[in-house]
Amino acid sequence: MGSVSLKIGDGTARFKRSTLCSSAVNGLIIFSVLTTNLFALYAFTYSPSTRSTHSFLPAHKDITLISEQVSLIMREIEFSQKKLAQMEKDILGYESIDLSLPNTADELQLFLRRHRLPLGKDSRTGITEMVASVGHSCVKSMDMLSQYMNYKPYGQCPDDLSLAQKLILKGCEPLPRRRCFAKTISKVGLSPFPHSLWKNVSDKIVSWSGFSCKNFECLRNKNCAGCFDFANGYENQRFVKARGKNDFLIDDVLAMGSGGIRIGLDIGGGSGTFAARMAEKNVTIVTQTLNNEAPYNEFIAARGLFPLFLSLDHTFPFYDNVFDLVHAGSALDVGGKPEKLEFLLFDIDRILRAGGLFWLDNFYCANDEKKRDLTLLIERFGYKKLKWVVGEKVGLGKSKVYLSAVLQKQIRV
């Protein structure tokens, strides 16, 4: 008669087709179940004709009471289901943004619309719907968010890169996706790698939307202390030539890494010079930066490096223990608030592998209290201090204290 096989794990389950005998047995079982249910129904509802009228009343009251109890149970189940559904909505967070507000862009409503899971309720989480990801703080900037999402679908995106960054800096991160085409710029003249690392980038291959400067010459005179100029200044000597005891050299730091340094993260990496120097040592560096008054991300990409457009209020989109090196300077001082710095350092610790290096590069300590608080915070992590230098730099007639350190993450048990 044949059989049906179903592979389960490493074994195989076989289901034989039903025979005449098994069909008869199944029929007998079904008949028994139906007969039992009919007898139960008969016993529950039947009252003998010899029973007097007054003896029927208690039974009728019992049935009424049972019906009321069943109705009460059903109401409780319905209430619990509604409560669970509301808890699911609260966990997902999609009702934190009121889409019924006037002037809410249609595209925003469409993007945030809930969608049922294709296979029904998830057995692990109990979630039944998919919800688009959007920053919870967007609710505080609904006017700006609606402006950002007010565009023509399938058309060209508005020239609003500065608006997007304003939303990110207000905590509206991640931003909702859009169904429009970003402005394209001809990238003619890009140099091949590794020649691209130290060749000045053309003004024509960068979008200057939202910036007060419209060329790199303007930026060289007012921003980033010449970090866009490789022909003049100190930028092409950084990390290979020290100007003070706080400036560590790349070769010296790489020699401290146990197990080798292969991949790292540069926080607040400016124009990507640290990543460029590391690329010469066959080390891949991801450079986190925003476009604060300058097209940093495009400039880094034009050098053949990896830019990451992300604020420091956002969790790093990397898995635990993946980086051999994390490099950061005064960009860690997020708003000067110690609790924010603490959260940030814990996230750095999360993505740094055991034996990896945390390179704190010329962190500005505004006062002795700040230096002491930072020192105590770092010591909580139990890192091994491979190098620790506190020095002063004189600028504009005023002395400033900077901390530079190379710390090695230890295995925790």
First CA to last CA: what distance?
61 Å
Low-confidence stretches: 1-22, 49-56
Q: Which CATH first-tier class of the domain at 195-408 would you pick?
A: Alpha Beta
| CATH fold descriptor of the domain at 195-408 | Rossmann fold
Query: C-alpha Rg, in Å?
Result: 33 Å
Class by SSE composition: alpha/beta
By DSSP (H or I, 4+ residues per run), the number of helices equals 11
Shape: globular
> What is the string of helix and strand elements?
EEHHHEEHHHHEHEHEEHEHEE
Mean pLDDT: 81
Task: Provide a short characterization of the protein structure.
Helix content is 34%, strand content 18%.
Provide structural commentary:
By secondary structure, the protein is α/β, with parallel strands linked by helices. Among the domains are: 106-169, no CATH class; 195-408, Vaccinia Virus protein VP39 (Rossmann fold). It is built from 11 helices and 11 strands. The chain has helices spanning 20-45, 53-92, 106-111, 142-148, 161-169, 216-222, 250-254, 273-280, 296-302, 338-351, 368-380; strands at residues 3-8, 11-16, 115-116, 129-130, 263-267, 284-289, 306-309, 323-328, 352-365, 384-395, 398-408. The strands form 3 sheets. It has a 7-stranded mixed beta sheet. It has a two-stranded antiparallel sheet with strand order 1-2. Strand 10 and strand 11 (398-408) form a beta hairpin. It is found in: Endomembrane system; Membrane. One of its GO terms (biological process) is methylation. This is S-adenosyl-L-methionine-dependent methyltransferase. It comes from Nepenthes gracilis. The chain crosses the membrane at residues 24-44.
